[in-house]
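Per reviewer request, we include the raw input and output of the structure prediction for the construct analysed in the revised manuscript.
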Amino acid sequence: MVHTASTRAEARLGPWPHETTVGRLVLVDHRMQPTDVDVAEWVEQARALQLTTLRTGALFPPADRPFRRAGFIEIDRLALFRRPLDRQAEAPHTSTSDSVSLKAMRRWHLRRVADLDVAAFGHRWGNDRVAIEEIRDATPTHRARIAVDRADVVGMAITGRAGESAYLQRLAVDPGAQRRGIARALVNDALRWARRSRQMLVNTSVDNEAAIGLYRNLGFERDDIALSVLELDLEALR
């Protein structure tokens, strides 16, 4: 955990999955507003660890502004979607093809889940086992599910809940198993679990047309706010 002396803002600094010289800085609370001093201290922490690059997690505006002032550049832009939830409404249908079932994600599934995440998103954006566990621990309560086809894990979803909001934190389907309704079933399963919350939020790259189409089809509406993932070349500062 990295924080300023005055505890104005807190962030987790660790390795970026699959890139040992790249640091990953994630704000503990997305509602916090870091200062220029906060960002400067985090950069110094990363330099002290001999990292070559520092990347942020998804940042809400205006939290990204002090990072941009420090020289961070945008490497990904994320669309934010919201869906109101009604605890009185009928729970969504979660069926998939006959051979696929949804089950709880257990610790012994993590290696396969991490491989699946990389297959779906590539090495740059895919998560390793440690990152998957961090996603599960990011909210006070969560639900982690896998889609299984003949004993093989072909999909996964992690949903968290904090306060009155639920968050679809990660959704991935093996490229070889896509277009079979697995993603839809996992999202509906998440909505069923989260229906006592006021709303569900999810973000995805603005270029991910398949995910955007799925969320729109399931009643999510795109927010005016866009999130950013930023990066700083630390070697250029040496």
